[in-house]
Amino acid sequence: MKKSILFLVTVFWTSIGFTQTGIGTTTPNASAKLDVTATDKGFLTPRMTAAQRGNIPLPAAGLLVYQIDGTRGFYYYNGVAWIIIAAEPFGDVKSNFQSTDHNGWVRLDGRLKTLLTPTQQAQADLLGIGTNLPNATDSYLVQRSAGTSGVISGSNTVTLAQTNLPNVNFTGTSGNAGSHTHTVDPLSFNSSGGGVHRHTYRDAYFAEGVSGGVNNLPGSGNTDNDNSLRWRTESGVSNTPQDISTEWSDAHTHVIDVPITTSSSVGDHNHSLSVPSGGSAAPITIAPRSLTVNMFIYLGL
């Protein structure tokens, strides 16, 4: 008891004699009212749960405590509300070389939200995250003018359609054979078989004055008296060959063979050309060169 009283008296007189209080030091810093000095120990503030912190009556502005549950950390009262010191705002997104959750940062890998801690699930609900976390694998961050945050959309490839191409004219040249002709050889065909008709031809010779009208065919050796061949007609003798007609014949056909003809080698004409583009509609990769990292969202512990 006497020792306790002596200690209090000593502290009291020390406080009066010096305007600063030093713990672990006899020369407290002039700018500090309380200077705790140590090389193997720290300064321990009151530790409490969030409920206990909320039950502190009339907290003074600047009051400092350490919360041991929920979103852990140092909290100070700013005169209106308790504020956590150096805590990341919920919903912040960052990239990192780490591959697993750490310090309240949750990897965006598409896992079920129910696999998170209760605090993280509650924060995910407040941020509008659905059944699963967004899967940021092979995706790029973009601020959209419309759409729901946290929704993965789009693709890293695109396929161009014809309407996406510039309007150009493909040109080409046909073969250089130059002027040329085409040969046409129609098939033979029969004339009509209808109609009775006669044929006229020049056939027999008759010698003048020869009894019975001897037929002096060429090469027969029969000639008239003056060795000149003449044609006998009903009106007399004529030196002009005469046509002789056959009797009327029955209906029959004639074979008609149109001769081969050749077209002209001149004349303007054109040939249709088909110039392929050579494409195969292969998708184009639009993803730029990238650095592989993992994406995380802060949901607390």
Describe the protein.
The chain is mostly beta strands. Among the domains are: 2-36, no CATH class; 91-143 and 153-160 and 281-301, no CATH class; 191-261, no CATH class. Helix content is 10%, strand content 18%. The chain has helices spanning 2-17, 50-54, 118-126; strands at residues 21-23, 34-36, 47-48, 64-67, 73-77, 82-84, 93-96, 105-107, 157-158, 183-184, 189-190, 200-201, 231-233, 236-238, 244-245, 255-256, 261-262, 284-285, 294-298. Strands 3-4-5-6 form a four-stranded mixed sheet. A three-stranded antiparallel sheet has the order 7-19-8, with no helix packed on it. The radius of gyration is 61 Å and the shape is rod-shaped. The model is unreliable at 5-9, 11-16 and 203-235 (pLDDT under 50).
| Uncertain parts | 5-9, 11-16, 203-235
Number of strands: 19
From the N-terminal CA to the C-terminal CA, the straight-line distance is 47 Å
Query: What's the mean pLDDT score?
Result: 77
Kindly estimate the percentage of residues that lie in beta strands according to DSSP: 15-25%
Largest sheet: 4 strands, mixed
Number of discrete helical segments: 3
The helix/strand order is HEEEHEEEEEHEEEEEEEEEEE
Q: Share of helix among residues?
A: under 10%
Strand order of the largest sheet: 3-4-5-6
Radius of gyration: 61 Å
Structural class: mainly beta
Query: What sort of overall outline do the alpha carbons produce when their principal axes are compared?
Result: rod-shaped
